[in-house]
Structures are given as C-alpha cells and as structure tokens.
Amino acid sequence: MKEKVTVFGSFVVDLMGRTPHLPVPGETVKGSFFKQGAGGKGFNQGIAAHKAGGDVAMITKLGRDSLANVALEAMDDVGMPKDYLFYNDEVATGIALILVDENTSQNEIVIVPGACSTITEEDIASVEARIKESGYVLLQLEVNQDANEKVAKLAKENGVKVIINTAPYQPISDEFLNGAYLVTPNEVEAEELTGIPVRDLESADRAAKVFFDKGVQNVLITLGSRGVYINTEGKSLIVPAYKVNAVDTTGAGDAFNGGLLAALAEGKTLPEAARFANALAAISVQRIGTTPSMPTREEIDAFLAERG
C-alpha cells in the first residue's frame, strides 16, 4: 500500500542561462539560451515524487507577486494539489540564478530564498494534520531552519519517518539529526557534516558512523557518476549510477531525492528505492531544466525495463 508523503521545502523561480563557459570573477560572458521555470530544492523534489507516482503534499511559501504564478502553473500542469501553499504579503517569491556550461553541463547557482525563508509556527500548525498522516516527510536546508526543526520534531513525535536532504549545506544541530530515518548528503556535504572526506566505501563507512552516533537511523551518500552509497541494517553497499549522456545536471540531486521518496512510500527497500531514484535522475539529466526535466512514472518504468 502506498503511503502519503510530505515534501516541506523551498520554491524559487529558476532563471537559467546557458553559456560556452562559466564566467570567472569580473568576466561577462555572452550566453546562448535562457529559460525561466519552477524550481527550488523542495519544489523540484515534490514534483519529481509526484510525477513518479507519489501521493505528495507540497508545503512551501510564495510571495504575492507574478513569480508565484510560476509555481501554481507548474502544479496545474502535472495535476498536483495546491492545498498546502503559504503566502507572504511583504517578501517576494524566491529566485535562483543558474549558469550552465553548455560544453561540460557543470553549473553555478545563486539562491535568494525570499518568501520560503519566512515560514512561521502558525503556518506549520495549519498543516499539522497532513504531516501527522504522512509515512515520510522530506526536508532540505533551503527554508528557514527553525521551521525545518519544528516540522522534524512534529513528525518524529508522531512516528513519521523524516528524511533530511542536507542541501544546500549549512551547519545543523545534532538534535535536528537525532531520530531522522535517513540523511541523503552528497559527498561534499557528508564531509562538511562529519569531517571525513568521502572517497571510497571505507571512508563512507566512517562518515556513516558519525551520522549513526548522532542518532540517524540510515545513511545514503550520493557519489555523482559513481552512484550511491547506502548504509542500512548494519550493511553498506554502493548502488551504481546509470551511464547516460548528460545535457544539464541542474536538479539531478533533487530528481534523485524525489524518486527515493516515491519509491520508499511504495514499500521498496532502501537499495531498491536508490536504483529507482538513480533511474529518475538519469532521465532528468538528459533534459534541460529542473522541474520540466522530471520524468513520468511510465518513463521511469520503461528505462528500468530497458536497463535492468
């Protein structure tokens, strides 16, 4: 049976430009392509999970401005409920400035969170019922951290499994991590949070032990093209990534986390869910953009059937 899930996180409007190379400080580079679209780590993950078949509540906060319509239209396009959106009358909707190197697909991103960094205790109280009835709640670090901590505490107290995607990196308390079902840092974030450079299975095991000592139940570290490290139920392994020709890696981590959430809600084991999420991310990086690049469940199933 599929469980309800909640994604609590950011919405920003992505302003993406493609360019022959990423500028160095002081340099102006003439770009070749521009696109505006829905983004933000939370929103990207919510859309990915929804399109992958999840029963998703997306909780975020928007400004009272034209940029908020980008979120509403994106949710309408994929048939996603809009019942859990908050608004700030004074602070603008968040934005992300994204530069993508059209030759290497590498990117540089500046986030201005705006309204989604102003989520209040009253906002959270109004969605308490949905959080309590969820099987999983997925968090990132792009909204105001006091709101994240309140949601995590509420979820843990009600037996809801909390997944913390530790991006973008910022220092977080041991109390926030304690009792989390799963953390999903990339290798850079894992090193920042544990002090251990993650280079191979052995160093990943040592980093995982730090997370376990902080009270985290399961650890997953994304390793880019090398795949995903998992430590669960006393066993560690690396689930390989699928090899594809990447066009735009923006949002790949969000694609993965959204796919992981949808798969876990269906009762898949963590390694099974990681394989599913790897497939979702592999499809997404072959397309331009963030939320528009997220594949449907049919596309994911077809990819897995072909690749195994």
Element order: H for helix, E for strand: EEEHEHEEEHHEHEHEHHEEEHHH
Which sheet architecture does the biggest sheet show? 9 strands, mixed
Strand order of the largest sheet: 5-4-1-8-9-10-11-12-13
* Total E-strand runs: 13
Question: What does the overall shape look like?
Answer: globular
Q: Quaternary state, please?
A: single chain
The total count of helices amounts to 11
Average pLDDT reading: 95
Which strand-content bin applies to the residues?
15-25%
User: Which spans of ≥5 residues are poorly predicted at pLDDT below 50?
Assistant: none
Give a verbal description of the structure:
The chain has 308 residues and is an alpha/beta fold. Helices cover 36% and strands 24% of the residues. It has helices at residues 41-51, 68-78, 121-126, 128-132, 145-157, 174-177, 187-194, 201-213, 252-265, 270-284, 297-307, and strands at residues 4-8, 12-19, 33-39, 55-63, 85-88, 93-101, 107-114, 136-139, 161-164, 182-183, 218-222, 228-232, 235-239. The strands form 2 sheets. It has a 9-stranded mixed beta sheet with strand order 5-4-1-8-9-10-11-12-13, with helices on both faces. The chain has a 4-stranded mixed beta sheet with strand order 3-2-6-7. Helix 1 (41-51) packs across helix 9, helix 9 packs antiparallel against helix 10 (270-284) and helix 10 crosses helix 11 (297-307). The protein is globular and about 50 Å long. The relative contact order is 0.16. The model has no long low-confidence stretch (mean pLDDT 95).
